[in-house]
Amino acid sequence: MNNFIVRTITGVIFVAAIVTSFLNPTAMVFLFAVVTGMTTWEFCGLVNERPYTHVNQFISTVAAVYLFLSMAGFNSGLTPPTVFIPYLVTIIYLLVAELYLKEKDPINNWAYTMLPQLYIALPLSMLTVLAFPENGSYSPVMPLSVFVFLWLNDSGAYCFGSLLGRHKLFPRISPGKTWEGSIGGGLLVVVVAVVISYLLKKYDLGVSGLDALQWAGLGLTVVVFGTWGDLVESLFKRTLGIKDSGNILPGHGGMLDRFDSSLLAIPAAVVYLYTLTLF
User: Fold this and answer.
1) What is the pLDDT of residues 49-73, one digit of tens each?
2) Helix, strand or coil, per DSSP, at residue 278
3) CB neighbour list of residue 9: distance below 8 Å, 6 or more residues apart
């Protein structure tokens, strides 16, 4: 019971912090820059425990945060494209540095150095593409919707899975997930997505430009890729032989544990929305 209370309190604070941050663009950028840094630091610390692996944890984390801030500045119209040059220089440095470090397995180091940039920093920085959709104007609807869909999918999958779950979704990696739970969570998200489209139209907010069917498609995109994101992190933890990526969030594990779904859902949402503009 005590663990349930701790988990509930942490979850409420976690959701409140994210929702509140979207009310102000500066707060959103600051919060997710911190999230990017903490998640990258956690990832690098975990892989550094593997044999013959040494990732520069500090420089990798600074680079990840800089990429997020650069994307935020560029997408908001505050900075020119040249803002990315220091990041590119840092990536080159991390590659060239292996020539002089004389590590036993430089290929391993290169792989684990680049992975958090591709797996964590780049996806989270895509959040600013959703937040500043055009002309640098800020709109929290899309990025917040992605997180709402992920939370609803998790809750729906848990409830439907507990009541109806019979067929395992991916037993090799995540024995607790079922097809019934995933389908139930997906249906819940689709219903809420349609409701959101209705409310936006009713109150003439018009901030997304999507109709009900397109909103439902966005919801399904987030569900599918969010589920894959969760499974990818589960595979990562199984490979390392750990249960949680960290313990910074009482009852919820580490930063990777909380943002695993979003690491695939955010870029997938960006691709989906940009694809809609092509047709």
Assistant:
1) 999 999 999 999 999 999 999 999 9
2) coil
3) 250, 251
